[in-house]
Amino acid sequence: MTGTLIKPKVALVETKPSRTNFKQEFEHSFEFDQYQLCSDPTIKKVLKSHCDIQIDIAAYDWIILIGSDALKYFTKINSVTAYSGKAVDGKFLPIINPAMLAFKPEAKKTWDTSKDSIIAYIAGEVKDVVIDESIAFGIQDTTEANKFIQEAIDAPKPYIALDSETTGLYPRDGYILGLSLAYDDKKGAYIDTECFDEETERLLQELFDKKTVIFHNAKFDLAFFEYQFNFKFPKFEDTMLLHYLIDENPGGHGLKELSLKFTPYGDYEKEMYAWMDQYRKERGIKKDEFNWGMIPFDIMKLYAGMDALCTFLLFEKFVKIKQNPKLNWVYENILIPGCRFLTDIQDNGVPFDRDRLEFSQVKMQNDIDHAVTEMYKNPAIKKFEEIQGKPFNPNSTVQLRKLMFDFLGLNPTGKKTGTGADSTDVEVLTELAQVSPVPGLIIDIRQKSKIKNTYLDKIIPQLDRDSRLRTGFNLHTTTSGRLSSSGKLNMQQLPRDNPTVKGCIKAAPGHKIVAMDLTTAEVYVVAVLAEDEALKDVFRSGGNFHSTLAKKVFSLPCEVEDVAKLYPMQRQATKAVTFGILYGAGANKISEQVTKDSGVYFSRNEAQEVIDEYFKEFHKLKSWIEQNQKFIQQNGFIYSFFGRKRRLPNVASTDKGVQSHSVRSGLNFLVQSVASDINLLGAIDMEIHLKANKMEARIFALVHDSILAEVPDGEIDSYMEALQKYIQLDRGISIPGAPVGCDFEVGDDYSMGKFEKLYG
Questions:
Q1: Each residue of 594-609: pLDDT tens digit?
Q2: What is the average pLDDT across 89-107?
Q3: CA–CA separation, 602 vs 611, rounded Å?
Q4: What's the whole-number mean pLDDT along residues 640-667?
Q5: ∠432-435-441 over CA atoms, to 5°?
Q6: Burial class (CB within 10 angstroms; exposed 0-12, middle 13-18, buried 19+) of 125
Q7: What residue ranges do the domains of the chain occupy?
C-alpha cells in the first residue's frame, strides 16, 4: 500500500504589503499563505506597535520570513544575511528582502542560493543535522586526552583544526579553559586544560610540529597558546583569512556566520547562548561582566567541539581559493606573515606613561569645567536658558539645534543627519564658529570631553602591569587591505589636533619613539602603475612634491621652494586635484575642497581648468584611469598590483549613482591597497630583521601609513637605516632613482614634544 504524500503547510511573512510576486520568485514550487507584519503600506518604518499580523504559527510546518523585520519579530535574531536560507527553530526560513537587489546587486547570489535552500527544505530534501556526542564531545581525563591527541598525530590528513576557549580576549586578561581539536571531517573534541600533564603538552607540540594547524582567526589563538603554554606553530592556516580572499567585504567572516552558510550544522551554538542568557538573567549579571569561565564544561563541550569540526570543514571548502595564483600570493606573502607579525606587535604593546595619563585626566577635567563655566557665562546662552525655562545641555542635539538656528538665527550649512535634520556635528560647528562665538565654545567642550571620556578614562584601567596597553590590529576588515585597529584602543583614531593622548605614548628611559611615515605614497604608486614618466619625473626632481607639481602644471615663473609663498592657491588647487582625481573627484568636488582648504572661493570653472591642465601634463595618468574605469564597468572586479581582488558587482546596478560609486571604489582600491601593502610588507620584513639580529627595538603599532616603534637610544640609527631599506625594497612598484619617501620623527613621546609644549 502506497501512502499519500502530505504537502507541508507554508506561510510567508513580509514586513508590509509589497509588489513582489513571491509565487513567481519561488517558481511556483509550493503553495503558501501570505501575511504582513503591518497591513498599512504607507508606513515607512514599521515599528512593533504597527504590527497587526494575525497568524497561527502552530498551523504551519514552515514559515518563510522576508527581511530582517520579520526575522526579528519571530526569533529575536537581527542578522537576516547570516541566517538567509537556513532553518531557525525548526520552522522559520529567513531570507533577505528581494527589494534590496535593485540597489545592491551583489546580494543576488545570496537571494538565489537562499531561495534554492528554502525550496529544498520545504520539499524535504534538506534536513539539519542532529548534533550530539557522536560528532562533538568533551574530554576531562588525561589518558583519554593523550589518546585522542595521538590519534590526531597518526591521522592521514596533513592538517588538524584547532580552537581555544578562553576567559578573556587578551592573554594577560584571562586563561585558556580548553582546546578544541578535529583531525577529520567526522568529529571534534573539546579537551579541558585542567587534565593536561607534561605528556599532554609534549604530544600537542609534536602534533603542531607534524601537522599544519588550521585556525579560524589565528591571531587570537596564537597569542593565547604561545603566551600561556609556549607552544610553537611552524605551519598554520587561517580560514578567516581564506574567506577574506573569497569575499573582501567587511563583516561576515565570523566562524558562526560561515558555519551557517557553508556547513550542514546550522546555528550549533544557539542552545549554549540561550543557557548563557538565562544564567545571566537569574543572577543579574551584565553582559560585559560575564566570562566563559562561568560556563560548565558539560554545557561548553558540544559547542566547543563543533568549533574545531566546522573550522576543519571550512578549510576543506575554502582551500580551493589558493588555486588562484594572485590570491594565493597575497595569502602566503601578506596575510599569513601579516598575521604572525600582528600577533607579535600586539604582544609588544603600546607604551604608555601612567603618570602622564593621570595628570592629563585631571587637567582635562579642569579644562572642561572651565570651558563649561565660560559657556554658561555667555550672554546668548543665558538668554536662551531664560526663554527655555531650563538649563542648556550642550550634549542635546535638539537644544543645540534650537540655540543655533532658531534663537541665534545662524544659517544651517545644508549638511543633514540621517533623519533629515540639520546637522550640528563638528564640521558644521566649525563653519558656524566663523560668525558666532557660541559654536566655538561647544566645540571646545566636546573635544575635551571626548579626549577624557573616550581615551584617558578608558586607557588607564586597561593598562597591563608593565604600563603597556595591548590592543588589536586587523587584516580582514577593509576592502582595500589597509589595517584597522579595534579592541581596547583604536590606534587609527587617536586625536590629531590635540597632542594629549599621543603625548602619553612615551618611551621608557633610554629609549625613543621612532615614527616612520610614507610620504605621497599613493601618488607614487599611481605614477608607477600608470607608467607616466612626467609624473615620475616629479619624484625624481626632489624638493617639495606639491610645489613641484604646481610649478609644472601652471608653468609658474619661480623656483620650487618659492611656490608655497608666491602661489599658494595654485599649489592648493594642484594638491586637491592630485588626490581628488585618483578617486574620481570632478570639478565640483575639487572646487569645494580648494575653497574649504584655502578659505578663498575657487569656482567650478577654475577647478575644471586645473584638471584639464593637469591631464595635459600627465596624459598617461588619464589613460590609465580611463582604462581601469572601463575594465571595472565591464567585469565587475579588478586586481591590485600585488594580487588582491576587489569585487564590484554594483557596477551592474540600474542606479547611476551606485554605479559610479563602485567605479570610484575600484580606482581607490588600486591605489590604497598597494600603498598599504608596501608599508605592511616593509614592517613584516623589519620585524624579521629585528629578531634575526637580536635587536631590542620593538614595533608596537601601524597607524595609517606610519610604523611606530620603541627603540633603544643605541639602536636608533641602525633601526631607521634597516626600516628604510625594507620599505624602499624594490617589489616591482618603484621608480629607479627615486624610491618611495620615508619621513622619520624621533622623540620621547608620540607627540614628538608637543605634549610638553602644551603642558610644560
A1: 777 777 787 889 888 8
A2: 88
A3: 13
A4: 91
A5: 65
A6: exposed
A7: 10-122, 136-323, 354-462, 533-617
Tell me the C-alpha distance between 668 and 648, whole Å.
12
DSSP one-letter string for 202-238: HHHHHHHHHSEEEESSHHHHHHHHHHHH----SSEEE
Cα within 13 Å of Cα(595), Cβ side: 14
Joined grid coordinates for residue 64: 518563510
CB contact at 8 A, 727 and 516: yes
* pLDDT average, residue stretch 493-507: 95
> What is residue 147's predicted lDDT score, i.e. its pLDDT?
98
HSE (side-chain half, CA atoms, 13 Å) at 482 = 16
Q: Which CATH number is 10-122 given?
A: 3.40.470.10
557 Cβ neighbours under 8 A, 6+ residues apart: none
Q: How far apart are CA 329 and CA 642, in angstroms?
A: 8
Place of cell 611615515: 517
pLDDT tens digits, one per residue of 342-391: 999 999 999 999 999 999 999 999 999 998 898 888 888 889 888 888 88
Are 133 and 302 within 8 A, CB to CB?
Answer: yes
pLDDT one-digit tens code per residue, 638-652: 999 999 999 998 888
Same fold across 10-122 and 136-323: no
Closest to 185 in 3D by CA, of 214, 217, 207, 209: 214
**pLDDT score for 338:** 98
**CATH architecture of the domain with range 136-323:** 2-Layer Sandwich (3.30)
Instruction: Provide the 3-class DSSP secondary structure of residue 585.
Output: coil
Q: State how far the Cα of 631 lies from the Cα of 650, in Å rounded to an integer.
A: 14
Which residues make Cβ contacts (< 8 Å) with residue 687, sequence separation at least 6?
A: 341, 344, 345, 699
Task: Identify the H or E element spanning 137.
Answer: strand 136-139
- The Cα–Cα gap between 398 and 418 comes to 14
Using the predicted structure, report yes or no on whether residue 58 has a pLDDT greater than 70. Answer: yes
User: Which three cell numbers, joined as nine digits, stand for 583?
Assistant: 578617486
**Stretch 321-326: mean pLDDT, rounded?**
97
Paired with 238 in beta bridges are: 215
Cell 620584513 belongs to: 685
CATH number of 354-462: 1.20.1060.10
Q: What is the Cα–Cα distance from 657 to 107, expressed in whole angstroms? A: 18
Q: What is the predicted pLDDT for the residue at 5?
A: 62
Mean pLDDT for the chain overall? 92
Which residues lie below 8 Å from residue 632, measured CB to CB, with a gap of 6+? 638, 648, 651, 662, 663, 666, 667
Residue 295 C-alpha cell reads as 560556563
Residue 2's pLDDT band (cuts 50, 70, 90):
very low
Tell me the whole-structure pTM to 2 decimals. Answer: 0.89
Q: Give per-residue pLDDT as tens, 437-453.
A: 888 888 999 899 999 99
Quote the CA–CA distance of 384 and 403 in Å, as a whole number. 7
Helix, strand or coil, per DSSP, at residue 285: coil
Helix ranges, 567-618 (H): 568-580, 587-598, 604-617
Check: CB of residue 675 under 8 Å from CB of residue 483: no
744 Cβ partners below 8 Å, 6+ apart? 514, 515, 516, 517, 720, 724
